[in-house]
Amino acid sequence: MTSATKRITDFIAGLRYEDLPESAIELAKHCLLDWLGVTIAGSREPLVSLLLDQAEEEGGNRVCSLVGQSHKCAPGWAALINGAASHALDFDDVVSSMGGHPSVPVFPALLASAEIRPTTGQQFISAFIAGFEAECRVGTLAAPGHYARGFHATGTVGTFGAAAACAHLHQFDSGKWQAAFGLAAAQAAGLKCMFGTMTKPFHAGKAAANGLLAARLAGRGFSANGEALEAEQGFIATQADGLNWEGVQAMGEDLGIAKVMFKYHAACYLTHATIEAVSQLQTEYQVADEDVAEIIVKVPPSHLRVCNIQEPKTGLEAKFSLRFTTALAFCGRRTDDYAFTDLAASDPDLISISNKVRVQPVDFLPNNYSSNVEIVLVSGQKLHSSADVSRATPHHEMPAQWKKLSAKFVGLVEPVLGADATRALIDSVASLETLDDMNSIISLAQAK
How far is CA 361 from CA 196, 270, 365, in A? Predict the structure, then answer.
C-alpha cells in the first residue's frame, strides 16, 4: 500500500492552476488580501520589533522584504518575522480541517521564495492552494488527538503547509516532496499553553521559516524519512492518537480552501460565536450593567482549554478570554485590533461585566463554532440568544465577502501605508492572476 505521506504529497503536487476551480482562485485572493492586511497592521506590534532586533544582530543575506516595513532580512528571518506579524493580532483566517490558521505559515514562506526566484501570480496562487491543502490533509490525518493533546496546529501542521507551498512552487519530484515533508515533520512545533503570549504568533513564524527551510534543503538533496507522517515514532505516532486516514479519504478531491473562514473580531475564533450572540441581545434589548445578575455563556467543552482565561492582565491574554470578549460585546465596544490592549484589560467597566460572566461547558451545541448565551436580569427575566460561525462563504456570496474584507483591509493598512498604497494593494491582489512577477505586490506592501 502506498504510504500516507506519498498519497498526500502526490495529490498536492498534482494541483495545477488551469485545473483549479474559479472559486478556489478567488478565495486564494481573499486569503492574500486578508493576510496582507493583518500582517501590515501586525508589523507594528512589540513582538515584531524584538524579532527584528534579533535578525539584525545575526545578519545574513538580506534579500527578502518585511511586509509593512522598509527592512530586508535573510529568507528564513523574513519568513519568521512576517509569519509572526501576521498572527500577532489573532485576526487572520481559520479552517476547521487544519484545526488552525492556514494562511499565516504559508504566505510568508511563499513570499520569501517568490522574492528569490521570479514567480508569476498564477504560480503563486497554485502554490498557496497546495500549501493550504497540505495543512487540511495533514491536520485531518492527525485529528482529533493532535490538538486535544495540546499542540498548536498553526505551528505544527502549518510547517507542512509552508513546505508544501514552496515544494509546489519549485515543482519538486516525488522524492523531494517526501523529503520536504520529512524535514517539516522533524521541525513541527507549537504548544497551546503559549496562547495569550508572544510565543503563539511566534509559532506561525517558525512554521513559515521551518517549512521554507525544509523545502530549500530538500531541493538541495537533503535526506529525510519519506514516510514521516505514518512511520513508527513519526509525526502521527508521537503527536496524535492514530492515523485518521478515513477522514482524509472522505475529503476526496475537494479542496480545503472552500471552507476557509475569515475573522471580523481580533480574538480567538472560538470566542466569535459568543461575541455575535451577545451583540444580538444588546442590539435588541440594550441591557444596562446594573440590570444584569449573571451572563451564562454555554460553549463546547473544548473551549475551556483554549479561550477561558478568567482574569486577563494583558491585551494578548484578553484575546483568549470568553469572559472578557463577552464584556466587550455587552458594552458595545470595538472588537477589532484596537480593542485588545493592556489598558482595556484593566478597564473597570469591562471587568465589572466580566465578573458577571459564567462559562458553562455543554454538549448540545451543533458544532465547535457555536455558542448559546443567557443574560439573567436582576428582575429574574432571562434573555437568550445563540450564534454559529461555522459557515464558510458560498461562491455566490464572494463579491460581498471581498467588499467586507476590503473594508477590514483599509482599516488595518491605511494608518500604516496611507490611502494610495492601500488602494493600490487592493487592486493588485484583485488582479493577482495577471501578474508577471510577485515582486510588484511585495514592493507595494513595504513601508517607504
Answer: 21, 13, 10
Contacts of 325 (CB under 8 A, 6+ apart): 265, 267, 271, 274, 275, 307, 318, 319, 335
Q: Examine the domain organization and report whether 136 and 230 are in the same domain.
A: yes
Q: Categorize the per-residue pLDDT at 1 as very low, low, confident or very high, splitting at 50, 70 and 90.
A: low
Cβ atoms of 208 and 104 within 8 Å: the answer is yes
Q: How many domains does the chain have?
A: 2
Task: Count CB-CB contacts under 10 A for residue 224.
Answer: 18
Residue 144: asked if its preceding bond is cis (omega within 30°), the reply is yes
What CATH number does residue 296 fall under? 3.30.1330.120
Bridge partner residues of 360 (DSSP): 298
Domain boundary among 370, 388, 406: 388
Mean pLDDT score across all residues of the chain: 97
Structural domain containing residue 411:
4-261+395-444
Q: What would the mean pLDDT of 297-323 be, rounded to a whole number?
A: 97
The helix (run of H) or strand (run of E) holding residue 383 is strand 382-388
* Residue 262 three-state SS: coil
Q: Please say if the pLDDT value at position 240 is more than 90.
A: yes
Do 121 and 57 reside in the same domain of the chain? yes
152 and 49, same structural domain?
yes
HSE (side-chain half, CA atoms, 13 Å) at 355: 9
pLDDT tens for each residue of 25-81: 999 999 999 999 999 999 999 999 999 999 999 988 899 999 999 999 999 999 999
d(CA 275, CA 107): 29
- How far apart CA 53 and CA 300 sit, in angstroms, is 41
Q: Is the Cβ–Cβ distance between 236 and 243 less than 8 Å?
A: yes
Distance CA 297, CA 283 (A): 17
For 149, residues 6+ apart whose C-beta sits below 8 A from its C-beta are 239, 240, 241
- Binned at pLDDT 50, 70 and 90, residue 178 comes out as very high
> Are residues 139 and 177 located together in one domain of the fold?
yes
Are residues 355 and 419 both part of a single domain?
Answer: no
Q: Are the C-beta atoms of 49 and 158 separated by less than 8 Å? A: no
Verify that 281 and 256 share a domain, yes or no.
no
Per-residue pLDDT, 194: 97
CATH code at position 217: 1.10.4100.10
